[in-house]
Amino acid sequence: MTTKITEQKMLLGGEWVGREQTLDVVNPEDQSVISTVPMASSDDAREAVRIAVEGKEIAEALSVRERMDILNKVADYVLDHAQEFAKTIALEGSKTIAEASGEARRTAETIRLGAEEARRLSGESINFDQMEGNTNRMGYYYHFPVGVVAAITPFNDPLNLVAHKVAPAIAAGNAVIVKPATETPLSALKLAEAFIAAGLPKKVLTVITGRGRDIGDILVEAEDVQMISFTGGYETGKSIAHKAGLKKLSMELGSNSPFIIWKDADIEKAAQSGVDGAFGAAGQNCLSVQRVYAHEEIYDAFEASFVDKAKQVRAGKKMDKDSDIGPVINEKEAKRIESWIEEAVDAGAKVLAGGKRHGAFIEPTVLSNVPENLTIVKEEVFGPVVILASVATFDEAVTRSNGVPFGLQAGIYTNDINLALKAVRKLHVGGVMVNDSSDFRIDAMPFGGVKHSGIGREGVAFAIEEMSEKRLVCFTIDE
Hints:
The N and C termini lie far apart (78 Å). By secondary structure, this protein is α/β, with parallel strands linked by helices. The protein is built from 15 helices and 24 strands. It is globular. A 7-stranded mixed sheet has the order 14-17-18-13-12-20-21, sandwiched between helices. The protein has a 6-stranded mixed sheet with strand order 9-8-7-10-11-23, sandwiched between helices. Strands 5-6-24 form a 3-stranded antiparallel sheet. The protein folds into 2 domains: 10-253 and 453-472, Aldehyde Dehydrogenase, Chain A, domain 1 (3-Layer(aba) Sandwich); 257-442, Aldehyde Dehydrogenase, Chain A, domain 2 (3-Layer(aba) Sandwich). Helices cover 39% and strands 23% of the residues.
């Protein structure tokens, strides 16, 4: 695949600018260079913050109607140019064209939600007379924007996860600086084009491209940045938290999601749900099914169904409509995943399907008999690899599900409502999906985790709340 995308500039406070030094954007499928973007410097990052400080006054002055109109126009633009967005997502990242098309449509929905939720960001009256001696007081609280939001986004959903930060930030009246993943900056830049076309005032939005080591710390540590919204790995998130100082943080830091299959489950439905959840986007999804715990009474039948369905998942060229999954983001990551598989095999694990690497492609891989102390059990694999295990009791399934430092979402298949409710209470996660895999999300729901999976919640309405502050107003009435 040798398609060439026009060389891109970055958006610095509403102005498109280039730089002498550039970064190549590489298609992971064949390592071809598809575009270049500016390599922003530390001075560029400081300038982005300076411009955003001016931009936050402009953003806050936009009426709710103006914010809504801009966001709705952006959503329309994305839909009108959906094929171009999908092609960009597929070329620079890991998704097949079918998966990328779905992301483009979903992005329009995310932005539309921002428009809808902007009107709902309201306050409440306070009954000050509930305390003795305050019958002459009345008041309320309302929301005001935090100011400047720095949004640091990952490669796996290079368009929709940018929208999940930019749309709420603008809906709440903030200026926002986006630092997209180094591997996948083109989708974010294309979304910026939509905001400019929709009439967003200059200085409200910046999309700055470059290496995190050159510009990341400046954005994170700047006193004029009031909030960091980060999606990425735990170690990076922990480093950001140490450097950020006294500012708001919202972090989605990945997971290692469990999926419990109880003995009363519909085996075929559960197996298909698990396969879809494990291998979509080549497993590069924070919600991906990584560990499956099936009751011993149905384990053999479940394993047979799961493996059969896994072997039908087609890894292939991303622009081929018949491909189910593409490569992982680069060959370095593929080699890491391969080493984790090999470590498991050396420790006695059985490969039931896949297990091989071909360049940046990892075959859809199913493992069993994997020792609990291995990296591939404890950490987030972020690739098309899933582990099957048998459990004797529900308590064992819950204990093993909780036995990792992550807790984003979990899935459970059962027809027993009492068991489902027990899972809801006992699983240490941010979300429990009953009769679905862990890999389920709509853009309106509160999304986030516990433990090493992060702090705060995304989902447009909840992100708007995070990107706002409450201001209390109290009147004393002379009578």
